[in-house]
Write a structure and sequence with these properties.
Length: 386
């Protein structure tokens, strides 16, 4: 889809309604039927848009996704609505009433900001992407709050805005970009742009090294449903603060500068911290609250003797500890009649599917096995959710 305009005509919109919900297996038959009365290019564009809308449901929900327009790159790179909503609420709580959204993409963050009552200047240099963002603002009834501009973000003035939000491109022709200075625009430019307003927020990859976080920034790692989605560098909030935010909720864990937890023998319970907790290096704060320690100094598994509720980690009761030995594990699972096996790993080179094929679980019961290291030794811990 290189031109959005045909899909916005009455004929294009009628086709979009006609192909809504088309299953992949039915596309050829649907296309053949519709091409008898409509241009082939328009039918293909409508079917392509229907596929993108189906993919977008996971991020935007069915109600919005069915009204919005997407590009393949836009679906892939757009912020999940729950995460964008969290960020918009933080902006609102800071007293922000206007935001310059630079590298706005298809408008996911702009939509969340506008729904929080914040006026948005949304900028993207790609003509099609800017057109899609503008159309989405109109489709969702937010055009009065979102001004979409096709321009190079480095040439756009942001004077007068309460906040600047920058979402640099983190993918290139060869895939993911890990060097923040290779982002487009580079992280250093984004930081300068953020510092020109009272508040700033920069969306960065969750794997960003802690040592490249500016001293004056707050760093927040965000997970949604247990999956780490992104990190955000905030300016004008709490310089030097580190936090992990878990959605839905939100539940936020603030760093207190604790040293690394001690290593201790495996207790009755094993806690698997949320990915945002691990990425933000706040495992020590969770271990303190659980009165626990690490199973190994290099592994982010917490062990404790008592079960305590925490939103920041998932608890498992450990029933067996074995040195890494596939035959012993297979015998144990056969004895326990385990047919439903969940395999988790941290610090092990063995792939879960590889192990599952070797032990061939059979039976009515379930178990979880952790492939890890305990005090440096390859170990298998067997248990179940507590």
């Amino acid at each position: 889809m290189n031109d959005l305009a045909p899909l916005l005509t009455p004929e294009g919109r009628a086709l979009l309604d006609a192909v809504r919900g088309t299953a992949p297996a039915d596309e050829l038959a649907v296309a053949t039927r519709l091409r008898r009365e409509h241009p082939a290019e328009l039918v293909s564009a409508a079917l392509g848009q229907a596929r993108l809308r189906q993919r977008a449901v996971a991020k935007f929900g069915a109600k919005d996704a069915e009204r919005m327009f997407f590009t393949p790159h836009g679906v892939e790179q757009s912020t999940r609505a729950s995460v964008a909503g969290h960020r918009a609420e933080r902006m609102k709580a800071l007293g922000v009433t206007s935001v310059a959204d630079l590298c706005c993409g298809i408008g996911g963050d702009a939509i969340a900001l506008a729904r929080a009552g914040i006026r948005v200047l949304a900028v993207d240099r790609d003509p099609l992407t800017a057109a899609v963002a503008r159309t989405n603002a109109e489709a969702l009834g937010l055009a009065g709050l979102i001004d979409v501009r096709e321009a190079d973000v480095t040439e756009v003035g942001t004077d007068g805005y309460d906040a600047v939000f920058v979402d640099p491109a983190r993918r290139g022709g060869r895939g993911r970009i890990f060097d923040p200075e290779a982002y487009s625009p580079p992280l250093s430019w984004a930081i300068e742009a953020a510092l020109k307003a009272p508040h700033g927020a920069l969306k960065v990859a969750p794997g960003i090294p802690h040592d490249v976080v500016p001293a004056g920034a707050e760093a927040e790692w965000i997970s949604d449903g247990g999956d780490v989605k992104e990190a955000v560098l905030w300016f004008g909030t709490e310089p030097g603060a580190v936090r992990a935010t878990l959605l839905p909720g939100p539940r936020t864990l603030l760093g207190t500068g604790l040293p690394d937890p001690r290593v201790r023998p495996v207790g009755r319970y094993l806690y698997e911290p949320d990915g945002a907790v691990i990425r933000s290096h706040l495992v020590a704060e969770v271990a303190r609250d659980l009165d626990g320690g690490l199973v190994d100094e290099t592994i982010a598994y917490i062990t404790a003797d008592t079960l305590r509720p925490t939103p920041y980690a998932t608890a498992y009761e450990i029933t067996d500890r074995l040195p890494f030995n596939v035959k012993k594990l297979k015998a144990l699972l056969r004895e326990r009649e385990v047919g439903i096996l969940t395999v988790k790993k941290r610090g092990s080179a063995v792939e879960p599917e590889e192990l599952r094929k070797k032990v061939k679980p059979q039976g009515p019961h379930s178990a979880t096995v952790f492939l890890t290291r305990v005090a440096g030794a390859p170990t298998m811990l067997v248990g179940h959710p507590a």
